[in-house]
């Protein structure tokens, strides 16, 4: 499975979202590319559909290979760091959004975010 997602950090907090099917489980906003769609086009489309925002100056962060939290299949996750234009509001299949440090005790994060993205953001100084 191929997925493209955004690591959006503002004021030292990472934006995470949850789906209506699993409202207490959080991951990065993004999704699967349509046939023939480039990664940045996928990112732009998904952020618009899910949150009503546009990525600003997206920069490649990493490709993470992990097991997809919901589907339980191997996943190749391409992550871009980006600022956003607009005020994010959950739409489409999303249930919730949260700005998090990643250290909250009540936060259930997708393993790819918890084990790969958070350490990369902390190592770069983007997230404390």
UniProtKB/TrEMBL annotation:
Superkingdom of this protein's organism: Bacteria
Keywords for this protein: DNA damage, DNA repair, DNA replication, Hydrolase, Magnesium, Metal-binding, Mutator protein
EC number annotated for this UniProt entry: 3.6.1.55
A Pfam family hit: NUDIX
Domain Nudix hydrolase: 1-122
Classification via InterPro entries: MutT-like (IPR047127), NUDIX_hydrolase-like_dom_sf (IPR015797), NUDIX_hydrolase_CS (IPR020084), NUDIX_hydrolase_dom (IPR000086)
Reactions mediated catalytically: 8-oxo-dGTP + H2O = 8-oxo-dGMP + diphosphate + H(+)
Protein's UniProt keywords contain Lipid metabolism: no
CDD domains referenced in this protein's UniProt entry, alphabetically: NUDIX_Hydrolase (cd04690)
Cofactor needs: Mg(2+)
Stored PANTHER family: 8-OXO-DGTP DIPHOSPHATASE (PTHR47707), NUDIX HYDROLASE FAMILY PROTEIN (PTHR47707:SF1)
Entry's family note: Belongs to the Nudix hydrolase family.
Protein name, entry field: 8-oxo-dGTP diphosphatase
Organism: Streptomyces montanus
């Amino acid at each position: 499975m191929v997925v493209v997602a955004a690591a959006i950090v503002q004021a030292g907090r990472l934006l995470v979202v949850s789906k209506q099917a699993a409202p207490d489980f959080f991951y990065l906003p993004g999704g699967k590319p349509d046939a023939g769609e480039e990664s940045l086009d996928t990112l732009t489309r998904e952020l618009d559909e899910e949150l009503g925002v546009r990525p600003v100056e997206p920069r490649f962060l990493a490709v993470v290979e992990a097991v997809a939290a919901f589907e339980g299949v191997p996943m190749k996750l391409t992550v871009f760091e980006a600022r956003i234009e607009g005020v994010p509001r959950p739409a489409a299949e999303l249930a919730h959004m949260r700005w998090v440090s990643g250290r909250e005790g009540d936060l259930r994060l997708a393993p790819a975010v918890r084990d790969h993205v958070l350490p990369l953001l902390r190592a770069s100084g983007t997230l404390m």
